[in-house]
Write a structure and sequence with these properties.
About 40% of the residues lie in helices and about 35% in strands. It is an alpha+beta fold. The protein has two domains: about 1-85; about 90-220, Immunoglobulin-like. Strands 3, 4, 6, 7, 8 and 9 form a six-stranded antiparallel beta sheet that branches. The longest helix is centred in the N-terminal third of the chain and has 83 residues, at about 1-85. The termini are far apart.
């Protein structure tokens, strides 16, 4: 009987010791977890500050780049505006038609070329034509007329063109079956050294007896 009681006491004691050890272990685990959390918080805070600093640096760099681009665009615009008032502008400004439809007679067209700018147009090259066709071609058949000319500001001159127009051709032009075209291209260099180009194309409108621009082949740089 005594032995049984002694065994029971030892078992209870063992259970108590095991329970205390389990509680102590749980407590230590909780302490370690709290310590780890306290250690992690400063690290996470430092990482957040580093990321914020990096984002701010990137935003500052982007803002600086955008500011530099805006400043360059503003400078380019100011330069362009200044050059607009000083550069050469070469255009075909007027078309004068002398229409002849009798046999063995040529119709004549005078095209007035002028520099409307404030400075000379250098190395001017002109190619023009005056023709009858079914419609305006994609590639204009131009003929070289002027090469390496200097055209001063507010100066112009006339280029003469001739084409034979029969009564049948004139009837086709009047009804719209054919078109009478004047076209040309001017290449030159302005005082800033920039290559410029003017292109023109106009068809004869019999209802108003004048040339009117076509939808294509009219541009200037």
């Amino acid at each position: 009987m005594l032995v049984a009681q002694l065994a029971l006491g030892i078992g209870v004691l063992a259970l108590a010791v095991a329970g205390w050890q389990w509680y102590a272990c749980r407590k230590r685990i909780a302490e370690l977890a709290a310590e780890l959390a306290r250690t992690r918080l400063p690290v996470e805070s430092a990482n957040s500050r580093a990321e914020a600093a990096e984002n701010q640096a990137q935003q500052s760099a982007a803002a600086a780049a955008a500011s530099a681009m805006a400043a360059q665009a503003s400078a380019d615009a100011a330069k362009s505006v200044a050059e607009l008032g000083k550069r050469a502008w070469v255009y075909a400004t007027e078309f004068k038609l002398s229409l002849k439809t009798q046999a063995n007679e040529n119709s004549g067209l005078d095209v007035w070329i002028a520099n409307l700018g404030a400075t000379p147009a250098r190395e001017l090259r002109l190619s023009t034509n005056f023709l009858i066709c079914d419609e305006a071609p994609a590639d204009l058949p131009l003929k070289s007329r002027v090469n390496n000319l200097v055209l001063g500001p507010s100066v112009g001159f006339s280029l003469a063109h001739f084409v034979r127009i029969s009564p049948a051709d004139m009837a086709s032009i009047t009804t719209g079956k054919k078109v009478l075209l004047t076209c040309g291209q001017a290449h030159y260099r302005d005082v800033f050294g920039t290559e410029r180009e003017t292109r023109w194309c106009a068809r004869y409108d019999a209802s108003v007896r004048a040339f009117v621009p076509t939808p294509a082949h009219n541009s200037a740089t």
